[in-house]
Amino acid sequence: MQNRQPLARLFSDYLARHPGADADVALFRDLLADEAPVFERARLAGHYTGSAWVVSADGQRALLTHHRKLGRWLQLGGHADGDADLARVALREAQEESGLVDLVVEDAIFDLDRHAIPARGGEPEHWHYDVRFVVRATGSEAFVVTVESLALAWKPVADIASDPASDESLRRMAEKWLRRGR
Fold first, then answer.
1. Which of 41-45, 79-83, 131-135 is the least confident region?
2. DSSP category for residue 39
3. Which tens digit of pLDDT belongs to each residue from 86-143?
4. What share of the chain is helix, strand, coil (3-state, %, to 5)?
């Protein structure tokens, strides 16, 4: 079994910075306490994923993907595939899904989001426990659209925060980012 203590500490740190997130953190801690392979997508009752709130060097824009399977604009990210270091997962997914190479991930959790993934093919509906980290582009912002995406786009964070058509969790992250002050 992977060492889960670093993630447990990150949850405690997140709760200290976001005291109103008790219920969300409790859900994520409950999953962490499960002895099942919670970092593997094969655990269909629910598993951890790692996502990246990719921001431009100046902090003004976020890189979003028009997700191929879900058909919505979302942050980059994906399955842990057995890796309990979800910051590393977020960085890896951001690199793989964007082709960007000069990326730096922050150590602290930026956001938590538990959401249902609809049934598709032979895979039943299941839960993603998405742990999100800030990933900053420090070099070229020229991305490459991969098979994961229908499109990628740099969008102004303020526009994401104010757009009622944006995914609710994207708006929440954009608002957090704007409050944080880059």
1. 41-45
2. T
3. 999 999 999 999 999 999 999 999 999 999 988 888 889 999 999 999 999 999 999 9
4. 35, 30, 35
Tokens linked to 68? 């191929």
Read off the pTM.
Answer: 0.95
CATH number assigned to the domain with residue range 5-180, chosen from the 4 options 3.90.79.10, 3.90.180.10, 3.30.70.20, 3.90.650.10: 3.90.79.10
Question: Would you kindly state where each structural domain of the chain is located, as residue ranges?
Answer: 5-180
The dihedral built from the CA positions of residue 121, 125, 126 and 129, taken in this order, carries a sign that is positive
Helical spans, DSSP H, in 40-142:
86-98
Side-chain half-sphere of 18: how many Cα atoms within 13 Å? 19
**Tokens encoding 50:** 């790692």
Angle between helices 22-33 and 5-17 (to 10 degrees): 170
Nearest to 106 by CA among 130, 137, 79, 80: 137
